[in-house]
Amino acid sequence: MAQEVPRLTKPLIHVTRDQETDQHYNHDEKPGHDLEEIKSFKQFLKEARAENKRIWYLAGPAIFTSIAQYSLGAATQVFAGHLTTLELDAVSTENLVIAGLSLGIMLGMGSALETLCGQAYGAKQLHMLGVYMQRSWVILTTMCICFLPIYLFATPILLFFHQNEEIASLAGKFSLYMIPQLFAYGLNFPMQKF
User: Nearest to residue 13, comparing CAs of 131, 115, 112, 121?
Assistant: First the structure.
């Protein structure tokens, strides 16, 4: 027996239409459907527990993503610290100068998605959320390609700014290994802001 294939056009946020007012509402925000008045401490604990569950359901993945993202650079730095001072200097230089420049600009560009998605949701244009996400992926992937020469030519760039020759050479080699991280962040930044 063939399994039923889920519809790809089904929205993730369920919206209902009020027949009387002809307005669209998310099932949680319809007028008159607020929490009932809390009259006892037991009811307060019950509502606080339910609200806490909803908050962790929404915030948990975002917290995990942020911790994973920021610990990536820290873990690299810690492992480089077990090598010589020269390697630690090279990794630090690459992380702060080369990656810091490109990832900072891309994070700023990815932050525009947060505003666009908020406006689309507020205007009840939920179909635009996915469109904005996909456009953001294309734009940031294009930016990754634009930043690729900085990673490829990190050694001459650092030497131009009078960095120590040994550190510049090692940072240039390390930046080549960090190219996949550039493209991974290009896809990750929009998902964080979505």
Answer: 121
Those residues with Cβ within 8 angstroms of residue 6's Cβ, 6 or more apart along the chain or in another chain: none
Residue matched to tokens 């390609």: 145
Q: Which two tokens stand for residue 29?
A: 């925000």
Residues 6 or more apart whose CB falls under 8 angstroms from that of 156 comprise 172
What one-character DSSP code corresponds to residue 12?
S
Measured distance CA(121)–CA(11) in Å, rounded: 12
Looking at residue 10, the DSSP 8-state letter turns out to be: S
Question: Taking the model in full, what pTM does it have?
Answer: 0.63
Q: What is the pLDDT of residues 25-70, one digit of tens each?
A: 555 555 555 667 788 898 899 888 988 988 888 888 888 878 887 7
List C-alpha distances in Å: 8 to 11, 30, 77, 116, 120.
8, 26, 42, 23, 20
Q: Hey, is 88 helix, strand or coil?
A: helix
* pLDDT tens digits for range 122-137: 888 888 888 888 888 8
Question: For residues 159 and 148, what is the distance between their CA atoms, to the nearest angstrom?
Answer: 18
Name residue, tokens 């001459």: 156
Angstrom distance (rounded) from CA 88 to CA 181 = 19
List, as one string, the DSSP characters of 13-53.
S-EEEETTTTEEEETT--TT-SPPPP-SHHHHHHHHHHHHH
